[in-house]
Amino acid sequence: MSEIVFLNGEFIEKDKAKISPNDRGFIFADGVYEVVKYYFGKPFRYREHLKRLERSLAEIEIEYNETDKLEAVFDELIAKNNLYDKHAGVYLQITRGEHKRVHYFPDNVKPTVYAFTFELPSFKDNLENGIRVITHEDIRWQRCDIKSVSLLPNTMLYNKAAKAGAGECVLIRDGMVTEATHSSVLGVKNGTVITRPLSNLILPGITRNVILEICTANQIPCEEREFSEREMLEMAAKLHL
């Protein structure tokens, strides 16, 4: 059975999906995305993902007024690809759409909306044994709070981690930890969970927010503050004592 994707209002076989080479997502990375995880057919924190998507769209001035229909689209994609009894993900990308190449945001352009599903790998070994990481200067742009499809710096740095036999690259800006290439970074010091405050330099991570909710609900001390690379390494070292 061929994989079914969603493109501009239609569910079609993946090999029949076609996008214009003049799409601004292709030419300028002019678009945003979200990834929603599904566990046995149920989405994880869908509303939070939707809220973040709508914020990203607003920040780059893409007018897309059908976000209320996306949950039904995602559910149908999960069903059509027989993933309702598995751990799966739905990737959604919305670009400004097709237009001749101009640097300003053109008017009256219809966004390109594309979504597909995938089966999630098992993270059992990572959860039980952890992963190796490297650190690197944060070379990304200044609007990391937007979930932009422009991920070249992230992929470059993650590739460095992969070549080093590591599973992630933690990013450092002016000596302070921001986040990782596709993960939030939290630490534990003297029984307190620590993570960097939200700003334009990090993505408002859904899992990050869930962890803070759990801490609050269970009276676990938590702080939103900056911490240095050195402090992070000290916290990591104590975990192995």
Structure overview:
By secondary structure, this protein is α+β, with helices and mostly antiparallel strands. The protein folds into two domains: 118 residues, D-amino Acid Aminotransferase, Chain A, domain 1, CATH 3.30.470; 114 residues, Alpha-Beta Barrel (D-amino Acid Aminotransferase, Chain A, domain 2), CATH 3.20.10. It is 29% helix and 26% strand. The protein has seven helices and twelve strands. The chain has a six-stranded antiparallel sheet with strand order 2-1-6-5-3-4. Strands 7-8-9 form a three-stranded mixed sheet. The chain has a three-stranded mixed sheet with strand order 10-11-12. The longest helix has 14 residues. It starts with a strand and ends with a helix.
Provide a concise account of the structure shown:
This protein has 241 residues and is an alpha+beta fold.
